[in-house]
Every structure is written in C-alpha cells, then in structure tokens.
Amino acid sequence: MAALDYNSLSKSQKLAAFLVLIGPEEAAVLLKQLPDSELEVVVREMAAMEVIEFDIQDKVMHEFCDLIGHGMTSVLGGVHFAQRALERAKGPQIASNILQKAMPPNNSIEAVRELAQLEVRQLHNIIKREQPQTIAFVLSYLEPKKVTETFLLFDEPTRESIVASLGSMGSISGSVITRVLGAMSKGPSLSTQKQVLHERGGVQAAAQLLNSLEKELSKGILTKLQEKDPDLTDLIRQRLFTFDDIAKLNSRDIQRILREVESADLALALKGAKEQLRSAIYGAMSKRAAEGLREELSLLGPTRMKDIEAAQARVVQKVRDLIDSGEITPPQEGAADVVE
C-alpha cells in the first residue's frame, strides 16, 4: 500500500485512521454512533489501511488529541481489524453484511452474492447435491431468514452435516471460493483470484441458525451433533439462547435488557413465562417498576399462545443483539438456575 499523505486525506479517512489507532474495543463504541451509510465508507477506509506510518499516527494524535486516550498501541488495520470492530459495534451478522458492501468487488465474492439473490427453492435446487461444506459456505452469505428457509428444505442427515460444517467454518481463501463456484459453474477462472481470506460462518452462525428453528428441531440436531462432535456442540450450545435463559443472567444484564425491550412486549412475553423467570425479572427492577409490570400483566386477560411466543421471540432477539455486541454475557451451559 502506498504511503499516506495526511493533508490529502478526507474526513472519512482521518476518522478511519483514528479508529485503527484506538483499537477495536474503543472503535466499536464510536462505530455504533454512525449511520449505516457513513459506516460503510469508514469501514472501507479502515480495511484499506494495512499499516499506519508513525508520522500519520502523530498527526492523527494531534487532531484527535482530546479523544485518543490510551488506545495508542493498535497500529495495524486491514480487513480483520474492520471486522472485529464492526462485530463489537453491530454484531456478527450485521457486521458481515456491512463489510461485504464496503469491501472492493471481487469476482468470486460477486458470484456468491449473485447466487444468494436467487429464490429459495431455486437456490436449493442448485446446491442440494453439493457437499455439506459447500452448502454451508453458500448459506453463510444469505440473510438470516433466507438461511432458515433454505436450510429447512434439506433432509435431516444433511441438516446435521450443514450445521457441523457451518460451525467449523473460518477463513476461506479466494481460490477456495472460486473452486466451489467453479464446481457449480458459477465462478470465474481460478487464475484471476487473489489469495484474500474471507471470514465466514463459525460457531455464532451455527447457533444463530439453530436459534431460528423450532425448539424440538434445534434440540434434535444438537443431540445428533453431540454424538459426532461434542466439542463443537458445546461451543454452539454456549451461544444458544432461549427466553427461559434470561433467568440465568445476572441482575445487571437483565437490567440492560429491560432498557431495550418495550414494556408491552415484556408483559406479553411474561404471560407464558415460568415463575422463576418472572422472579428474576421483578428482582432486577425497582419495586415501583415491578409493581407496574405485575399490574400490566394482570390486565392482559386471556391471550393467544401465538402472540405470547411472538413477544418472547422479540425479547430474545434483543438479548441476542446485546450478546453479539458484547454488552451482556450469555449464561454458560450447565450454569445453575439461580435467581439473584
């Protein structure tokens, strides 16, 4: 990469350099404040700054002297930095989507994106005879809803293999992507591809897929996977989260969740909740707020289970977003059901 000329840098480039300097943890806090349109521009610049020279660091320090703080040790940028900071700011799935849009086009990646735009059944017909690793790779480029819809079209043994492959995925080189697409007659020639690594899938993606399925289906897949790969299964279980699991969180994390959830959704969700979970929620609230919630709950009257489950799903999604952003810590598998 050519040396940077600080005087010619745009505001977005200067901000990107500043974010690289302060490190992914602090950068994530600032990235949260940017609208998505500006975020994509800044991420693109961060990913392009592989190394920031000392003189540029010095000028950035002076310009952002009131903000730079203690984060002076991070001087390496690039794609991995941009991805780590984005994941902390927006969560893995949203981070992946923004990074895809922000990165310069790549023939193989563009081919995958084109494939991902197909209608669910059409996509299934193209990939259904591929190896589970290939199917998992393609699914890793889909929106969550489309992942679930496509996944459910496969038979039971294939589903288990897809989850295992998705959970085991990590860095994939451009040449591997090309070979996969070439096998499906969807990709350009191998000689045109750069050896760039693309982070896809992983344990979080596998957990997100299982969380989107019906509880019994998800449980069945995990049981089968446990027999074949207990270590991977344990990692996935740690990232799964259900409405009942809120009772396993500490009061501080529950309080953080309550700030994100609509009171109407909370009352409706608790209509079908176990007493232990209700106690955990009430215990994390002030006495006055807890009394208000109890009153709101008592006024609901007979409620359709469908509506209760929908409200619980909305609450759980808020919790998963907070877990993905690192704002709360998920309960560990086997954690004692203790209400503080």
How would you describe this protein?
This protein is mainly alpha-helical and 340 residues long. It contains 19 helices and 2 strands. The chain has a two-stranded antiparallel ribbon with strand order 1-2. Helix 2 (36-48) runs antiparallel to helix 4 (79-90). The termini are far apart.
Nutshell version of this structure?
This protein is mainly α and 340 residues long. The chain has 19 helices and two strands.
Strand content: under 5%
* Strand order, sheet with most strands: 1-2
The number of helical elements comes to: 19
Total domain units: 3
Largest sheet: 2 strands, antiparallel
CATH 2nd-level architecture of the largest domain: Orthogonal Bundle
Low-confidence stretches: 66-76, 187-197, 333-340
Share of helix, binned:
55-70%
CATH superfamily of the largest domain: Flagellar motor switch protein FliG, alpha-alpha superhelical domain
The CATH class label of the largest domain is: Mainly Alpha
Helix/strand order, N-terminal first:
HHHHHHHHHHEHEHHHHHHHH
Tally of DSSP β-strands: 2
- Report the C-alpha radius of gyration, rounded: 23 Å
